[in-house]
Amino acid sequence: MFIKIRISHVIFVEILTGLFFLTNTNAPGGSMTVLRHLFSPVRIGRITAKNRLLMSAMSINFGVDENNYVTDQLTGYLAARAQGGAGMILVGGAGVHPTGLELPGLPALWEDGCIAPMKKMVRAIKPYDVCFGVQLMHGGRQSYHDRKVAPSPIPALAVVKGVPRELSMAEIGELVASFGDAARRCRDAGFDFVEVHGAHGYLINQFLSPNANHRQDRYGGSFENRIRFFLEVLDNIKTRAGADFPVGLRINGDDYVEGGWTLDDALRLAPILEKNGADYLHVSGGVYGSKQLSIPSMYVEHGCFVYLAEAVKQVVRIPVVGVGRIKNPEMADRILREGRVDVVAMGRALIADPMLPEKARSGNLNAIRPCIGCCLGCIHQVLALEPGSCVVNPDVGREYMMADKETTAVSKRVLVVGAGPAGLAAARVATIRGHHVTVVEEKGCVGGLLLLAARAPGRGEIMDMIHFLARELERLKVGVRLNTKLDQTLLDELNPQAVILASGSLPEMPIIKGLFTVKMDLCTVTEVLDGKIIGDRVIVLGGGQAGLVAADFLAEQGKVVVVLNRKRHFAEEMSSNDRYYLRERLNRDSVRLYKQVAVQRFTDDGVIFTFAGKPLTLERFDTVVVAESMSAVRDAKPMLDRRHVELYVIGDAKSPRHLMPALSEAEETGRAL
After folding, report:
1. Are 128 and 82 in contact (CB under 8 A)?
2. Angle at the Cα of 119 (from 113 to 122), degrees rounded to 5?
C-alpha cells in the first residue's frame, strides 16, 4: 500500500526566454568562419574528405538479415548521417570471421555473398559526398557467443562471460587472411576505405596487451612479438585490397587496466604502423572492465581521450583522429585549431542528431539535438543484445520507414497538459506535423522532474535535452502557458480537438511500520533535490537511480548516507556504463549501500532491517529520504473524459518509467494525431 504525496519545486529561470541560447551562432555564414577548421578538407591516403568529422563505427546491432548481410534498415540509418554532412562515415564493427562476430546483429564480411548488399548500400550513400568506409573487427574473447577464440585462454575482465579457446598457429594465419579478404570485399563493394579495430579489448588489442596475451611463441612475450599479428593483418590488407586502398587503424592509447597496453606502448607502436602503410590512426582507450570505460557516460569530461591522440600525433606524420565524448562542434573545432588532432570522431552525437554537421556548418548550432551521455539506447540496449536506439532520438533504426514525414492533411487544435520532457517532445512533433498546439504547465518553468534530476552531481547534461526542446517550441511558435492550471474555463477557451495528458508523476510514500512516527525529518527524493535542508546523517530508502543519485547529491554536501535497497540490484533502470561511474562516486567512507534488505520498522532515530539474513540496526540518524516508487498524476483525466475529446496519456502520466520509452511514446503520439 502506498500514499501519494505532493511535493514542491523550486522555481527555475524560465527556459523559454532564450537564456540558454548559444550566442553569435545564427548569423548567416557565421559557422563557416567560427568552425573553419572542422569544415576544412583532409587527405587520407588517396582520398580527400570534405571536412574533418568522422562518424565512428558503432555496434548498433540492427540492420542485417539472417546471413548478417546489410539491409535497408542499416542503409537508411547511415544515409541519414551521410545526408547530415559528416565528411567520413564508418559501418561497423563488421565481423571478418564467424568466430569474431562481436554481437549477433552486426554485418558479416567473411564470404563474397556480402558484396552485393554492400554495393547497394554504397550506391545509396555516395550521392551525399561522403567518404564511406567499413570498420573490420574480430571480437576475440569479447564476443557474445560460445565459440570465442583469443591469443590465450583468459576470459574478458567484464561484461562477456566464458573462457575463450586459445588460437593455434594455423588459425592465426587464417584470421590474418580473413582481415585481408574482408578488406578486398569492401573495396569490391565500392567503399572508399577501411578501418581496422585494434582497440577496446577486441582480438588485436588482446594480442597487444600483456595481461591478455600469455603466449610463448612468436606472437607473445616481447613487444615485437605481441605487435606481430597486427602488422601481419595490415600487410595482408594492403596485399589483397591494394597498396593504395586507404587503411585506418584504431588503437588504444591506454587500456586503463593493470598490466595492459599503455600510452608508452602506443607511442612506440604508432611510427611502426605508419612505416608499414597505415593511412591514419584513430586513438581511443579502455577495454571491457577497465577503470575508464571505452564509452563513458555523462559523468566523464568531454574530449576525455583526446590527450592520447594528441600524444600519438607527436610521433607520426599521418592524420590522427581524436575521440571521446565530443558532442559540441565548437569544441571539435577548437581541438583541431589547437593542432591536437587532425580529425575529430563523433559517434553518439551523430546518433542523437544525424544533421549535426550541416546544422553546425550553416551556423544553426541551437537546432542540434544533443546527446546527453546516458548510454541507455546506444550502449545498454545493445549490450542486452537488443537493437540500438537513442533516448533523445526515437527515430534511430527506423529511418528507412520514415520517408513519409509530410504535414497532416487535417490540422487539429491540440492541448498538451504538462511541460515535462514527454509533453515538450509531443508538442514539438505535433506542431511539425501541422497541428495548432498549446502547452499548459502548472509550474513556472518547463522541464518537469528532469529539472531536479539535473541538479545531482555530474548529471547537469540532462538539461541539454530540455534546452533543445524549449528552443524548438519557441522556434515553432508554440503557445506555452506557464503557471496555468487546467480547468473547465481553460478547456472552454481553447476548445481542443485532441488532448495529450503528460502531467508526470509524484513520489509514493510506502507504508512501513514506524515510518510516520519517527522523530527524524521525513522527506522525498524530489524535495531533497529541490533544495530542502536536511540533517547530517541520512537514511535513503530506495536503491534505484533516484536513490543513488540522491545519495551522491547528499554525500557531495558532506552528509553521512546509508542506502537501503529492498530490490536485488541497484539502479537497474540506468545503463551499465552510467551506473558504473555513479557507483564509483559512491565508493567513499561516508556512504554505505545495502541491497535485498527487509525493513522491519523505523525507530525514532533509525531503522531495524535484515541484510544477508542478519538483523541490523541503524541509530542516531536525523533524516529519512524516500526514493522508491513514483505514482502517475492523472488528476485531469476525469474532466477530459467527460468532455469526450481525443485523449492520449503519455510519459509518467501513463506509467512512470525512464526517459527512453517516454520520449518515444511522446513522438509517436505527436505523429499519430
Report:
1. yes
2. 145
**Count of H helices and E strands in the chain?**
22, 28
| Domain 413-504+633-672 shares a fold with domain 507-631 | no
Q: Summarize pLDDT for 263-303 with one digit per residue, the tens.
A: 999 999 999 999 999 999 999 999 999 999 999 999 999 99
Task: Render 75-95 in DSSP notation, one character per residue.
Answer: HHHHHHHHHTT-SEEEEEEEE
Beta bridge partners of 540: 563, 625
One DSSP character per residue, 502-557 reads: ---EEEEEE--TTGGG-SSEEEEHHHHHTT----SEEEEE--SHHHHHHHHHHHHT
Record: fold of 27-363+369-399: TIM Barrel (3.20.20)
Please state, in angstroms and rounded to a whole number, the distance separating the CA atoms of residues 397 and 355. Answer: 15
pLDDT tens digit string along 307-358? 999 999 999 999 999 999 999 999 999 999 999 999 999 999 999 999 999 9
Domain boundaries, the chain: 27-363+369-399, 413-504+633-672, 507-631
CATH of 413-504+633-672, one of 3.30.420.40, 3.40.50.150, 3.40.50.12780, 3.40.50.720: 3.40.50.720
Specify whether the CB–CB gap between 32 and 361 falls below 8 A: yes
- The DSSP-derived string for 570-582 is S-TTS-HHHHHHH
Dump pLDDT digits (tens) for 88-98: 999 989 999 99
Which of left, alpha, beta for 594 (phi over 0: left; psi -120 to 50: alpha)? beta
Query: In sequence order, which residues have a C-beta less than 8 Å from that of residue 585 and are 6 or more positions away?
Result: 299, 457, 458, 552, 555
Structure confidence at residue 406 as a pLDDT band (50, 70, 90): low
> How far is 174 from 168, CA to CA, in rounded Å?
10
- 391, three cell numbers: 533516448
Catalytic residue IDs: 202
Cis amide linkage into residue 543, ω under 30° from 0? no
Contact 198, 249 (CB under 8 A): yes
Cell triple for 351:
546518433
CA-CA-CA-CA dihedral for 394, 144, 579, 614, to nearest 10: 130
**How does DSSP classify residue 637?**
H
Residues 6+ apart with CB under 8 A from 64: 70, 71, 74, 105, 106, 107, 108
Asked if 81 and 88 touch (Cβ cutoff 8 Å), the reply is: no
CA atoms of 556 and 456, how far apart (whole Å):
9
Query: Of 562, 616, 572, 568, which Cα lies nearest the Cα of 592?
Result: 562
Tens-digit pLDDT profile for residues 556-583: 999 999 999 999 999 999 999 999 999 9
What are the distances in angstroms from CA 572 to CA 421, 542, 580, 628? Answer: 21, 12, 11, 13
> What CA–CA distance (Å, rounded) separates 245 from 242?
5
CATH assignment, 507-631: 3.50.50.60
Q: Chain centroid to CA 485: how far? A: 35
pLDDT tens across 153-180, in order? 999 999 999 999 999 999 999 999 999 9
The packing angle between helices 169-189 and 115-125, to 10°, is 40
- Tell me the mean pLDDT in the region 127-140: 97
Whether pTM > 0.90 for this model: the answer is yes
